[in-house]
Each structure stands twice: as C-alpha cells, then as structure tokens.
TrEMBL record:
<dbReference type="InterPro" id="IPR038717">
    <property type="entry name" value="Tc1-like_DDE_dom"/>
</dbReference>
<feature type="domain" description="Tc1-like transposase DDE">
    <location>
        <begin position="8"/>
        <end position="124"/>
    </location>
</feature>
<dbReference type="Pfam" id="PF13358">
    <property type="entry name" value="DDE_3"/>
</dbReference>
<dbReference type="InterPro" id="IPR036397">
    <property type="entry name" value="RNaseH_sf"/>
</dbReference>
<protein>
    <submittedName>
        <fullName>Transposase</fullName>
    </submittedName>
</protein>
Amino acid sequence: MRNLLPRIGFIDETSLKTNMAKTTGWSPRGARLIDHAPFGHWNTQTFIAALRHDRLDAPWVINGAMNGEMFDLYVETQLVPTLAPGDVIILDNLSSHKSPRAAQAMHTVGAWFLFLPPYSPDLNSKWPSPNSRP
C-alpha cells in the first residue's frame, strides 16, 4: 500500500473575496483608526492545488471564480506537467471538474480522475451533536 501513496493527489480550491474585508476596527482612545481596505474594488481570487502525501503540487491562483474554462487551463498548464503515468487525482463533484477536455489531458499522460461521492449531510459529522439525544 505504501508504494501507492506517491500516485495519489487530491485537488480542491478555495477562494477569497475582497469584499469580506472588515471596514471597522479598534484604535487607542482618542486616536483615529487609519487602515486600507479595497473599497469599491470587490474581487475574487481562487487558489487551487493538488495535495500529495508529501507535498503540494501545481499551486495556482486565478483572479475570479473557478469555472470550466479555468479548470481546463489549470489541468493542461499546471497539473499535467507534474503527473506521471498511473497517477490518480481525486476531486469533488464540482460541475467544472467534470470536463472532457481536462480528462483527455490527464489521459494523455496516463493519469486519471476519481470523483468523490456526492455530498451527504449524513456523512459529514463523525460525532453526534452535544444537543442530540441517544
């Protein structure tokens, strides 16, 4: 089993919206708070990478949200160069991940996608809620 670990990678993305910047704050009594927030320039940045057992592969930041076109570009230009034949990339069921173009790019190097099962709230919590009754 140990020799299979280098062949597995998990892809996920996360995003940051600049309109989530706090617009209030604290300062010493009698002093005015002066700071910077990107007011009026609300943007989204998305970070995507492949997590391996010993490293992070193909990290990439894009301006904007992830969509099918950006995912295809990520796979072709960032992820595929890091892959070897037999690699398996595991990812969630985001619609932009289910791309024939990305799957073909993976296939050309002998790697493939494996999708996680659809989300289930029943499988989300390992421990019972403190408010639940036996």
